Amino acid sequence: MQPTIGGLEAREYGAFITITSLRASNSPRMVSVTLKCEASLDLPPSDLAYSSSSAVYTVGVAIPPNAPTSRGGVVASYSVAPALPAGLTLDPITGMITGTPTAATAGSTYTVTATNARGSTTAVLGITVNPRPTRDLPRGAGIPHDTCGTVR
Question: What is the pTM of this model?
């Protein structure tokens, strides 16, 4: 005896349980049941956030990785608008922002979007990239006055 009982859907975003086979022997003490369980997380992503939502970086200095978190369904891809400052990248699969800024940028906001087949969610990041500090030497600090500005 091997009847198959069809799956039962608990709800749209819930768990599904299917009994794939039920086998009984002639002995009243022997029953074999095989269960197939699946969890469906077919939800849109929500509550996207970054470890650093406001950051000030310096040209030529690698930034610490900025990682996203979200709730809801699994994120399929990430995108950002407008483009991040030169030298910084957004990984479209993990959402991680990494890199070394190559040009100074005034404070701006960037919208990162996390998307899956059910929908999307966004996070707004504030990023400023400062120029690399210069070291000013006082006049007479080991450089002859008449050679300033010339290359020899």
Answer: 0.64
